[in-house]
Amino acid sequence: MTAQKGSAFLLKITDGQDPATYQTVAGLRTTQMSINGDAVVVTHKESGGWRDLLSGAGTRSVSVSAAGIFLGSEAENTIRAHALAGTIDDYELSFEDGSKLRGRFLVQRLDYAGDFNGERNYTMQLESSGAVLPA
Predict the structure, then answer these.
(1) Which CATH number characterizes residue 96's domain?
(2) DSSP labels for 13-41?
């Protein structure tokens, strides 16, 4: 196996049309995804002192963090509108090997920063709402 390029790890947002097409959120320099799961412990006397977990139970979620340079793209403006309104929308995570994950996400945090004589940058945190599945 060869290493995959970080630049090919893309965050995309739906255009809101039917059928949906996804627009890349431009200007991202860093994208990170975490898959989280809360275990349901079913340990009992006959577990022999070892913890037993219930497969398929508990709460699963996906968190996405991203940071980049603000370019004022339509996708960035849509994300800002969702952050201000607290609305959930469809997103896609795309990887270099062609695999994709799609799900509904809430913009939990959106930060802007800029230095005098420098570009404006932003960071954001997305949290899944519902299933995140391969596309």
Answers:
(1) 2.30.110
(2) EE-S-SS--EEE-TTEEEEEEEEEE---B
* Identity of the residue numbered 8: A
Cα separation, 98 vs 61, in Å, equals 22
Give the integer Cα–Cα distance in Å for 49 and 60.
Answer: 26
Q: Which domain holds residue 94?
A: 6-134
Number of domains in the chain: 1
Q: One-letter amino acid identity for 84?
A: L
Around Cβ 66, how many Cβ atoms within 10 Å?
Answer: 21
| Per-residue pLDDT reduced to its tens digit, 93-135 | 999 899 999 999 999 999 999 999 989 999 999 999 999 999 9
Q: Is 33 exposed, middle or buried (0-12, 13-18, 19+ CB in 10 A)?
A: middle
Element (H, E) at 77: helix 74-85
Any residues with CB less than 8 A from the CB of 31 and at least 6 apart, and which? 6, 9, 10, 11, 64, 65, 66, 93
DSSP letter at 4 equals P
Q: pTM, whole model, 2 decimals?
A: 0.88
